[in-house]
Specification:
12-stranded mixed sheet, 10 helices, 16 strands, 28% helix, binds S-adenosylmethionine
């Protein structure tokens, strides 16, 4: 589908209009920008990266705070981005984080600002982040069993995560959402316990299917715990009914738990993809635009920025990068190739 917002160029090919939002040739408009602030992490979740970590980006290749703010400003002021999600790597490891949030909160129109985090250290910074303008957080937590947590993350930091969650709720970074990945034979049997724990504290649990984005390239479909299996794990202990609320571009299918109002979400990225409703665009810590988590091409905005391009030129490159977004991630396509970058480097 080619939208009215597209232009027909001199070569007869349709392309993005010279002004306006981040449109792709299938008619989707990206309004949700995921910004990776660093590729470093202080956990070593086994489904994400190896025990020894990865070759982190050199500082010179990472966008400075001013560069991040400039690109986000262009996205918000010229490209129609309405929500900014800070991620990584671990965004709390970014030294200038509070200042970045404050700068984004001062943009017009003010974007919604969210953060995806492992919550290590959040107990210390939640209030300052809320005061700076952070609206809410998603905390990644796959288990509340300390032994299993140590096995999956290779770090014994469960108490820090729990403290971080409590601080986020106390600071009003709500609704506090908890994101979990289930691994067969490790924490899949603990899904009911995790849901009960979240319900008791007022956190919204969302369980996401594991995707082929691990640095070790060890994902395989048979080992993945499907959304259907997840529901089968929960249903003996909870009464789950679809909320019936339109999902829009939200990835989670929401269920009322025991009649509500509490809900649980299941994100079936692999078995029931939602690419047709995708409204996301990603900016990596080294300034590359990715139009999809699974994209194999990137557009180098850092080079443009450091080469002296003005805001109009950068906005125009960004539109071109979005225009080429594929209709779907293609995991089920026999020609599917996992992207070079792992999730931790793209920004989850
Ligand atoms: N460090 C932050 C955190 O822990 O939330 C942000 C980055 S982390 C890569 C973002 C999310 O991606 C986490 O919830 C993590 O569990 C999830 N994740 C990592 N690898 C994944 C994979 N292969 N499939 C699905 N989710 C994955």
């Amino acid at each position: 589908m080619v939208s009215a917002l597209a232009d027909v160029h001199v070569d007869g090919q349709a392309g993005p209009a010279a002004t306006g939002p981040l449109l792709d040739r299938h008619g989707r408009v990206a309004t949700d920008l995921r910004v990776s602030l660093t590729d470093r992490c202080n956990l070593r979740c086994e489904y994400c990266m190896p025990a020894e970590g990865l070759d982190w980006l050199p500082t010179t290749e990472t966008l400075s705070d001013d560069e991040v703010v400039r690109l986000v400003r262009i996205a918000v002021e010229q490209l129609g981005v309405r929500q900014v999600r800070l991620t990584g790597g671990e965004p709390l490891l970014r030294r200038g984080l509070v200042g970045l949030v404050a700068a984004m909160a001062a943009m017009q129109p003010r974007p919604k600002i969210a953060m995806t985090t492992n919550a290590l250290g959040l107990a210390r910074s939640a209030q300052a982040l809320a005061d700076a303008g952070l609206d809410r957080v998603n905390v990644s937590l796959d288990t509340v069993d300390a032994v299993t947590f140590g096995q999956i993350t290779r770090r014994d930091r469960l108490p820090d995560v729990i403290a971080g969650l409590a601080a986020a709720a106390a600071a009003g970074l709500t609704p506090v959402k908890v994101n979990a990945v289930l691994l067969r034979g490790q924490n899949d049997g603990q899904a009911p316990e995790l849901l009960r724990w979240c319900l008791d504290r007022g956190y919204q649990l969302r369980i996401i299917e594991q995707m082929p984005l691990d640095a070790q390239h060890r994902w395989n479909r048979e080992a993945m715990v499907t959304a259907e299996e997840t529901l089968a794990r929960l249903e003996p202990e909870f009464d789950l009914t679809p909320t019936g609320r339109p999902r829009g571009s939200a990835p989670a299918e929401e269920f009322l738990v025991d009649g509500g109002p509490a809900t649980v979400g299941v994100i079936a990225s692999v078995t029931r993809p939602f690419c047709g409703d995708c409204d996301r665009v990603r900016l990596t810590a080294d300034g590359q635009v990715r139009n999809c988590l699974f994209a194999r091409e990137e557009s180098d905005l850092r080079a443009a920025l450091r080469g002296g391009a003005d805001d109009l030129e950068i906005a125009s490159r960004w539109r071109v990068a979005m225009w080429g977004k594929k209709p779907g991630h293609g995991i089920d396509d026999p020609s599917f190739l996992q992207p070079q970058r792992p999730m931790s480097s793209i920004g989850g």
